[in-house]
């Protein structure tokens, strides 16, 4: 069937659906402000449904909406058997428009426009009288939709067994996906047709270490990036996930229809609700230009405005730390190899025998503080500073850390005084080992300690199975915990960088002290065997849609065996590592390598010294998922521009027109590029640095090696 016939058939199906919906109580349509995006809503046999088109091209076919409820022993039999999926009729509808420009505390741009048209559909369920509102916001680059439940006698408390939001695709798109998992996103992205997900699923899953896909062999996580045969880029994710479970997507590969699948809690239920309440937004980004996927602010805009009145203490941060040497295996988190025989806080570490490999020593941390001060870095992260690391992992142990007691060889008070004397702060580390009960019990004391010594940022961690036992990292209760930590931290003027937590959904707009997350396969995996070179040119299309990632770039000594017993290597070129400071946006950027390794490549390290973490303007110059990304950014409050380009294992040739520079200015341009013989496997550290004068309208022609990239500073 050719494309014209296929589009005609889709149009006929849509007309038929609209006719049926009209018979059930009317349809509604709404266009985006520039009229490129079209939303259609209707009721089909009592079931609410919708479809989306972009520039008169179908994107989401007729898809159904609703919630399946769990049986409630307190409800009457009649109510108990009634889901929120069908039997609805249209009670009312309202249309409105909204247009504002707001300033983020930090971000890729100084100003963000929030402009949409809104459709509010009020539904009433026949027989029960239950009321449900479907709210649609139609932007020029996508659609957000959510369920809202007014307070009502007919629906007060209810338990969600499953959410049944559908996204019916128009074809067998190319997709970039990771398998569904209730506890981790630390996986490499798969690229396949939608119809190939099932057959590739088992190859992508590490069954020995993952709770993955207990629901389906075609389950995937969001953000899901797709590309249609006719060149449309489509992304499905969620925004403002508050007091709700994280959404996965189940695919019916016969009809190419995705359906939401929520993370359960320890009881197997998906959500406990009390009206008035609402779900997170379900988001669909659409464009015929891949660059629009990266520059979209739709997910941020669907979150509430900032709730922190005074944000003066929140600041972008560039840091180094005692971390990489432990990841690689040269140093250890634990002070002794003796396992404590009694519970936390009673072990006499002063009498324990040191293992000689402990990384977080007073002497070593002083060296990192000196390095940070010499090179203009703001903070020094120290992991393994506190007692408890001897038996912290894989024990499912409730009482592990108290987050206040240092090891004997870590002088907490003296190190903070030394750091402050150098104009540097220490960054706190709270590894919870996923014992949420324990962390919440100690949280106030831990934050008070940070306030006492002048810490203003904490890296939290959730390695291991969740306690309360049986719960999952992405459940409703755990999502509430992560947000609780962020809110409590704000009271203490502390910024949060959460690792192994839930993937972000734009909450950093509402709580901008949430300056970073991990929630993906980060740089540490380069020490465990590596990630493919395309990994960092797909993450901005997927994981980074909901917020920045603490990817920990900047590994310039890419061959780990030159300084450790680790035989692995980093799967990029040295110049490609510099590019990540631009292409992997975050207000929190780590110079992750060792000070000694940076001294070996001091001329290249100059770019890390110079590059900003906060921006007035960002322009995506080139982009294609998992192939290449080139972006130019203007540093906040300055005339300085930086450009970064990163590619996959195929290499890439970039032609960069400097049309974005200010007219009449001359810039000192420094280019850090792959050498002609550079290759991420064979010759990763071959780079060249060139300098020239440039003006608006000049052109840079740069060649990226296999797995390589480039970085440019324009002063």
Describe this structure in words.
The chain is of the alpha+beta class. It folds into two domains: 3-301, Beta-galactosidase, Chain A, domain 5, CATH 2.70.98.10; 317-613, TIM Barrel (Alpha-Beta Barrel). It has 13 helices and 36 strands. Strands 6, 7, 8, 9, 12, 13, 15, 16, 20 and 21 form a ten-stranded antiparallel sheet that branches. Strands 1-2-3-4-11-18-17-14 form an eight-stranded antiparallel sheet, with helices on one face. Strand 2 and strand 3 form a beta hairpin. The longest helix has 21 residues, at 3-23. 52% of the residues are buried.
Per-chain topology:
Blueprint: H1 3-23, E1 28-31, E2 37-44, E3 47-54, E4 57-64, E5 67-69, H2 77-80, E6 88-102, E7 112-125, E8 131-139, E9 142-149, E10 157-163, E11 166-169, E12 174-177, E13 190-193, H3 197-204, E14 219-221, E15 224-227, E16 233-239, E17 247-252, E18 257-262, E19 271-274, E20 277-278, E21 281-287, H4 290-295, H5 298-301, E22 317-322, H6 324-328, H7 362-374, E23 379-382, H8 412-421, E24 425-431, H9 436-453, E25 457-461, H10 476-491, E26 495-498, E27 514-517, H11 574-583, E28 588-590, H12 595-600, H13 602-610, E29 615-624, E30 628-635, E31 641-647, E32 652-657, E33 666-674, E34 687-695, E35 699-704, E36 709-714
Parallel strand pairs: 22-23, 22-28, 23-24, 24-25, 25-26, 26-27
Antiparallel strand pairs: 1-2, 2-3, 3-4, 4-11, 5-10, 6-7, 7-8, 8-9, 9-20, 9-21, 10-19, 11-18, 12-13, 12-15, 14-17, 15-16, 16-21, 17-18, 29-30, 30-31, 31-36, 32-35, 33-34, 33-36
Helix pairs in contact: 7-8, 9-10
């Amino acid at each position: 069937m050719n494309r014209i016939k296929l589009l005609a058939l889709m149009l006929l199906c849509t007309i038929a659906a609209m006719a049926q919906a009209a018979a059930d109580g009317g349809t509604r349509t709404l266009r985006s402000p520039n009229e490129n995006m079209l939303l259609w809503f209707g009721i089909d046999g009592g079931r609410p449904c919708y479809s989306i088109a972009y520039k008169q091209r179908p994107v989401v076919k007729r898809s159904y909406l609703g919630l399946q409820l769990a049986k409630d022993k307190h409800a009457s039999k009649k109510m108990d058997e009634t889901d929120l999926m069908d039997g609805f009729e249209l009670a009312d509808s309202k249309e409105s428009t909204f247009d504002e420009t707001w300033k983020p505390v930090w971000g890729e741009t100084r100003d963000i426009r929030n402009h949409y048209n809104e459709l509010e559909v009020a539904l009433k369920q026949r027989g029960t009288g239950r009321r449900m509102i479907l709210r649609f916001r139609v932007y020029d680059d996508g659609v957000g939709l959510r369920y809202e439940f007014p307070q009502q006698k007919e629906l007060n408390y209810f338990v969600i067994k499953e959410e049944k939001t559908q996204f019916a695709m128009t074809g067998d798109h190319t997709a970039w996906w990771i398998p569904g998992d209730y506890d981790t996103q630390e996986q490499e992205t798969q690229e396949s047709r939608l119809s190939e997900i099932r057959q590739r699923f088992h190859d992508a899953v590490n069954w020995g270490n993952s709770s993955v896909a207990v629901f389906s062999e075609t389950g995937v996580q969001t953000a899901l990036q797709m590309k249609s045969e006719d060149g449309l880029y489509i992304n499905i994710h969620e925004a403002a996930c508050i007091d709700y479970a994280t959404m996965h997507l189940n695919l019916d590969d016969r009809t190419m229809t995705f359906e939401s699948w929520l993370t359960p809690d320890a009881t197997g239920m998906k959500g406990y609700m009390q009206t008035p309440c609402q779900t997170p937004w379900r988001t669909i980004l659409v464009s015929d230009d891949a660059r629009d996927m990266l520059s979209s602010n739709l997910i941020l805009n669907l979150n509430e405005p900032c709730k922190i009145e005074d944000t003066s203490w929140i600041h972008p941060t560039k840091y180094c730390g005692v971390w990489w040497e432990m990841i690689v295996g040269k140093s250890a988190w634990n002070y002794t190899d003796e396992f404590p025989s009694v519970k936390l806080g009673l072990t006499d570490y002063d009498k324990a025998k040191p293992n000689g490999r402990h990384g977080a020593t007073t002497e070593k941390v002083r060296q990192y503080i000196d390095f940070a001060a010499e090179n203009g870095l703001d903070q020094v992260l120290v992991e393994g500073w506190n007692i408890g690391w001897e038996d912290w992992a894989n024990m499912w142990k409730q009482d592990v850390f108290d987050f206040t007691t240092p090891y004997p060889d870590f002088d907490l008070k003296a190190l903070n005084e030394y750091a402050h004397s150098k104009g540097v702060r220490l960054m706190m580390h709270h590894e919870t080992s996923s014992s949420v009960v324990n962390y919440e019990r100690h949280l106030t004391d831990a934050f008070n300690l940070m306030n006492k010594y002048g810490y203003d940022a904490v890296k939290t961690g959730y390695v291991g199975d969740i306690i309360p036992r049986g719960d999952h990292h992405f459940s409703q209760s755990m999502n509430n915990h992560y947000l609780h930590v962020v809110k409590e931290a704000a009271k203490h003027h502390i910024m949060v960088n959460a690792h192994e937590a839930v993937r972000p959904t734009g909450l950093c707009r509402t709580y901008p002290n949430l300056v970073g997350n991990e929630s993906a396969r980060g740089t540490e995996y380069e020490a465990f065997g590596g990630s493919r070179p395309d990994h960092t040119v797909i993450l901005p299309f997927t994981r980074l849609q909901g917020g920045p990632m603490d990817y920990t770039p900047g590994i310039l000594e890419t061959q780990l065996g030159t300084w450790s017993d680790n035989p692995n290597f980093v799967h990029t070129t040295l110049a490609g590592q510099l590019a990540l400071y631009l292409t992997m946006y975050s207000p929190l950027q780590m110079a992750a390598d060792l000070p000694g390794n940076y001294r070996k490549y001091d001329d290249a390290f100059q770019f890390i010294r110079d590059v900003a973490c906060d921006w007035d303007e960002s322009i995506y110059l080139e982009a294609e998922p998992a192939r290449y990304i080139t972006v130019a950014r203007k540093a906040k409050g300055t005339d300085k521009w930086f450009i970064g380009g990163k590619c996959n294992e195929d290499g890439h040739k970039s032609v960069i027109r400097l049309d974005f520079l200010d007219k009449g200015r001359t810039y000192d341009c420094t280019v850090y590029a792959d050498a002609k013989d550079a290759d991420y496997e064979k010759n990763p550290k071959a780079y060249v640095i060139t300098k020239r004068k440039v003006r608006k309208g000049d052109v840079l022609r740069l060649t990226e090696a296999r797995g390589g990239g480039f970085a440019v500073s324009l002063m």
